[in-house]
């Protein structure tokens, strides 16, 4: 009881006891998950530093000279590496960044990770190892594919144009609402009890890409077609639009290894962290259609 009361007292409105101000650094703070986390933290009166290559606080994963200025005075970090923890060298980069964070006095780090990706799991281990060695509290949010990929991310334009052609067949994926990730990240940054935990977050239902596109067609009241295409044709089409080889390799990895069925089973991770069920894709799709995502 006493420790609960003192934890509450420490965690009020962006301040630790002793008057030290809490500052949350949100990397990828302009992206799908980061922007939602920024909104939530600001709504709770937290001090937030948004960091990315295009933010006022510039942070570039490829330029370690930008890391220390971004970390100055920070107490908590949301770590969303881009383009993906699966790219070669990502584990070394996030481990080096976490070491700098600990040296700068950061106390908590929340790592966004991908489910069933060996590269992402190597990065998790690298960050956790640094955390153990430095006393930093670390929470991993290991996530399935985002529902927002269809409404804000890389597939949104094709969906709006009426046809989504991807190198994926009938495999099902429990698409996850980024609002659930943001809620979980904010809890892990602000509340006690999440240090050392890895939460496997998924949506509540496994759906195929064709199922998702059917939901979107119904919600927006205009047909969208899903077409499964061979990987080679998909690569050639994107290469023709100037997409570089490293991005093509990453996409090939995501559509083959990660979508081979290994991640099809929904988990109760959202319920574990948030004490409520994960958001339904159909609800996200209805909200996105109402917000005009595909018009
Ligand atoms: N999409 C999915 O289904 C899915 C599933 C599981 C895990 N993930 C993971 O989610 C992470 C991406 O997070 P997200 O979807 O929230 O972001 P996002 O929407 O992909 O946006 C990327 C963010 O990172 C920033 N960024 C891009 N390149 C950067 C660089 N070199 N240095 C620093 N910042 C950079 C971008 O801003 P600037 O352009 O201004 O730099 C932006 O804020 C990846 O690690 C991915 O593996 C995604």
TrEMBL record:
InterPro entries membership: Ergot_Alk_Oxidoreductase, NAD(P)-bd_dom_sf, NmrA-like
Domain NmrA-like: 25-260
Pfam families named among the record's database cross-references: NmrA (PF05368)
Stretches assigned to coiled coil: none
PANTHER family hit by this protein: PRESTALK A DIFFERENTIATION PROTEIN A, PTHR43162
Name this protein carries in UniProt: NmrA family transcriptional regulator
Organism: Modestobacter versicolor
């Amino acid at each position: 009881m006493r420790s609960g009361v003192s934890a509450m007292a420490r965690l009020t409105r962006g301040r630790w006891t002793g008057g030290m101000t809490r500052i949350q650094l949100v990397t990828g703070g302009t992206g799908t998950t980061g922007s939602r986390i920024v909104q939530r933290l600001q709504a709770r009166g937290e001090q937030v530093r948004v960091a990315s290559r295009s933010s006022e606080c510039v942070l570039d994963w490829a330029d370690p000279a930008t890391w220390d200025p971004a970390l100055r005075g920070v107490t908590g970090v949301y770590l969303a590496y881009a383009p993906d923890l699966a790219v070669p060298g990502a584990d070394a980069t996030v481990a080096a960044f976490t070491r700098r964070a600990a040296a700068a006095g950061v106390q908590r780090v929340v790592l966004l990770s991908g489910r069933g990706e060996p590269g992402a799991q190597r990065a998790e281990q690298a960050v956790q190892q640094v955390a153990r060695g430095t006393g930093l509290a670390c929470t991993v949010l290991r996530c399935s594919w985002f529902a927002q990929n269809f409404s804000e991310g890389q597939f949104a334009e094709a969906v709006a144009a009426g046809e989504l052609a991807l190198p994926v067949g009938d495999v099902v994926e429990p698409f996850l609402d980024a609002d659930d990730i943001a809620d979980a990240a904010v809890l892990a940054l602000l509340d006690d009890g999440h240090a050392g935990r890895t939460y496997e977050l998924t949506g509540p239902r496994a759906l195929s890409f064709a199922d998702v596109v059917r939901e979107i067609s119904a919600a927006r009241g205009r047909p969208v077609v899903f077409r499964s295409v061979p990987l080679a044709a998909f690569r050639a089409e994107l290469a023709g639009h100037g997409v570089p080889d490293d991005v093509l390799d990453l996409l090939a990895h995501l559509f083959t290894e990660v979508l081979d069925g290994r991640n099809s089973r929904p988990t109760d991770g959202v319920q574990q962290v948030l004490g409520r069920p994960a958001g339904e894709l159909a609800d996200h799709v209805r909200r996105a259609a109402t917000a005009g995502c595909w018009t």
